[in-house]
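Researcher: Batch entry, complex prediction.
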Amino acid sequence: MSKKVINAALLGLGTVGTGVYKVLKNQEAEMEKKIGATVKLKKILVRNLKKAAAKIAEPEILTNNWKEILEDESIDIVIEVMGGIEPAKTYIMEALKAGKNVVTANKDLVASHGGELLDCAAANQCDFLFEAAVAGGIPIIRPLKQCLTGNHLSEIVGIVNGTTNFILTKMTQENMEFADALALATKLGYAEADPTADIQGYDAGRKMAIMASIAFNSRVTFENVATEGITRISSKDIRYARDLGCVIKLLGVARNTDTGIEVSVQPMLVSEKHPLASVNDSFNAVFVHGDAVDDAMFYGRGAGELPTASAIVGDVFDIVRDILFSCTGRIRCTCYKTLPIKNQEDIESRFFMRIHASDTPGVLAAIASVLGKYEVSIAQMIQKHKHEEWAELVIVTSRVKEGNFHDALLVLEKMEVVQKISSVIRVYGEEE
Amino acid sequence: MSKKVINAALLGLGTVGTGVYKVLKNQEAEMEKKIGATVKLKKILVRNLKKAAAKIAEPEILTNNWKEILEDESIDIVIEVMGGIEPAKTYIMEALKAGKNVVTANKDLVASHGGELLDCAAANQCDFLFEAAVAGGIPIIRPLKQCLTGNHLSEIVGIVNGTTNFILTKMTQENMEFADALALATKLGYAEADPTADIQGYDAGRKMAIMASIAFNSRVTFENVATEGITRISSKDIRYARDLGCVIKLLGVARNTDTGIEVSVQPMLVSEKHPLASVNDSFNAVFVHGDAVDDAMFYGRGAGELPTASAIVGDVFDIVRDILFSCTGRIRCTCYKTLPIKNQEDIESRFFMRIHASDTPGVLAAIASVLGKYEVSIAQMIQKHKHEEWAELVIVTSRVKEGNFHDALLVLEKMEVVQKISSVIRVYGEEE
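Model: Structure tokens for the complex:
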């Protein structure tokens, strides 16, 4: 009996591409029995043929000419792991139009142009899968699109950036300051040379846009996500959070409310009792709430050569099954609603803040009175340090509209008794 | 445009059946846009028509005659939530042979007869899905069968019984003894009137058999799983475990080793640092290790009306997509290997034990010498309590063949200086 072979092409042979190459090799002997056919990497697109040749056993499959792949009708699956918007987007669109199925790990692309790409895939009855674009090796796209479709999902909360979670874990467990923890992350290879996208929350924002779109059946793009990074978090904030029974995590939060979708990424205080609080180091996790499933959480490696390749090869194998059953394109875009995205100032949050204020009678009353005027109720107020002339106050508010809170902050900052507002950090969850 | 309707029948209208009915109602308005068709419950099979009529809005769809469903060619999906082996097995086989796709939550059936049922489904090009049979609402079957297929999975560790996890959590957090915690679980509805299957580990054993089969691509049935319950765990064991930095959990452990599959369910000490240690109350979690994905964990509600229905409806919706794309049967049995199952005595484990021994010189040496004779190395030995004539010793062993350990125990028990061996509990994981 002749062996059934399905040809694939890999675009890119960086860390993730090399991982895909390795995982396909590791699975080669069992593929036919497992999924009904063997996936053969027929071509690998690279920029530098010479550099790439050192990485693989069959340098003859390397090419720097996209047309060689696009025009090869025997190639049914294109695996894009180049990253960036262009030329990835053009290549993927061309591949789909040529009837090739596509797997990508490209969160930038899916978060900004996912709708267009999914429409193109549907028009050409192709699969367009991107499990690896969110939370690396953790199965989350397929669970959201298939396992949990019987739910109205109301909330997705994610620790979906390993770099920042590593930094915050070091700041928490070893009392490091942000700059030192970032330097360590860079040294250990957890942070890129330019860490902006990670530490400013952009990377997490892209993943939240993708998950929110799927979970709420309404398109959310990266441009809709309000992002705030972790650069202003200090080890003092973390110590004070601990006194309140909390840790500080960079959380992506997406909520489907009656008045629209809320979606943001920011550092937040999380109760130590919440399952997300014990997600440490470079691990990622996504916490989901639905009307039927209640709470569920998915935990694992959010990045890395082999974990990301695990997700990509899972997608490739699913496409093989679809090809063998002539049902490519069976899971399509599920954004059949057009829900409004709420403005950040209309979102309700709880806040933690640290204020340096004069240590004179009536100061607390004055601050409380300003907050009250803007409908900010105080849930907790603790005087932390008393110096000669000023005291450090920690205030945790009840749930309040962000707009109101920020209006109150503007007034507080101008008060003569307020020396400075040294931290403002949101608090996740309801009051206990 | 006429609305596309796919007819389904529900077998059973107990807790889970009612949940499925509710979740389908909750999704009715969106189904067509979400999955391309509306699922209509055309018939519900019940024993007591009158009792069931009170539960639903359309009592006319109730029947107590299976033939009415089997012979109705317009019914494409059968959802079995009766539980038990018969008549569930006969009904499912008949449904598959009639070309109907089947969803079941029946772990007893899948754990003992899964191979036969999957073969029957494949022969008839039908889907046979059972996401709800393991860990309730937690997506785990689809992740194992699809998302993680690019891995050689080497280990599955699960807290997959909510009743026992609730009991152990109460014993840990409130120092309750087993009998009191069980009574509380019964009162709160977490334990059934006859709790045997839960507290003896049989229920968890069934789920481990199903997951091991899928993860290791080799059939494991419930009969292959060594099970030990939690009835002998005392609050003292839990306190001593805490002193060692551990909690006690009922763990299902399945390992794919070079010499065969190990699969068992038993109470175990787990390091407080392990993600499974903070899975409390009636929550379930499944921890997976693979060569590509590294560690991953899936957490959520392992039982209950709506969480279980969430998993079932996810399967039903997947079948709808397969029907619309004419590809039912695309995910088949993946047990293409026949790996040996190791005997329990050949498995290597670490052990925690409490021994009451005479408080006389040379006792420790005598005990250590017996253990050494059977190749049991001592990793830790702590003298806990000294009474007038005896002392309580806590011993934690290194990894040892279970057979050797049990041979050593037989000798220890007969030693004059040993008053009793009050606990023997396995320890999860490697020495730190």
